[in-house]
Prior knowledge:
Elements: H1 2-12, H2 20-28, E1 32-39, H3 43-47, H4 51-59, H5 65-81, E2 92-99, H6 102-112, H7 116-120, E3 135-136, H8 151-166, E4 170-174, H9 179-187, E5 193-196, E6 210-211, H10 213-221
Parallel strand pairs: 1-2, 1-4, 2-3, 4-5
Antiparallel strand pairs: 5-6
Helix pairs in contact: 8-9
Amino acid sequence: MNRILEFCLVRILPLLGHTPQQLLQVLLSPNFYPIGIQVRTGDTNIRGDNPKSWFKFVTGKKSLLPSFEYFFACARDIVDGNQPFLTNTKQVSIAFLISDTTRLRRAALLRWKLPSSCIQSFGNTCRNHEHGLPVIANSNPVLHVAYTSEQLLALRMAMFDIFLFSLCEQHVISAESGFGSIGVFAALKQRNIYSLSTLNKRSCRGRNQHISLVASSYQWSGIR
Length: 224
């Protein structure tokens, strides 16, 4: 029984997410319009990302997704409010999710994953009509420099996530975390940034729920 469980955790579950190559292919493709979503759930959830807790997550009924689903609702509102681009390519809107806990990413992928077949074949047939915003994400646990002995590897993985996040056209980030804002600044997109608190659920609709890149430089980076 233990060997079967180990095989499922090591071999089967990681296949749920997208590979780094697939993430790059989607984010660099002109056929997709990526909305970056960054959710900071807290250090407690990071420490809970271990193989023993994965099985409890997959077999249990509890999920982090309902607590942070308003981040995805915000991304859908952004897509609905965007003006269509004058281009010959009909882009498919997607969400690229990064989070400090694999449980949230796995839950989102189980519900809204962009099929691997759609990475090669573009078009409206690849939309998840029920949700309207398919999700791409890496389903592997993150390494936090404070909780791992492989600090250099953790830093490299974090920088790669920031790079991928910077490739998104628009961003929804956690107000309590500075990690997402680094990718936003690196992207240099002249579009509104949506910063949501993980302490209270709020919609991103309305003028007061977004901030411009210029204004964010004063508020978050200390640039004057």
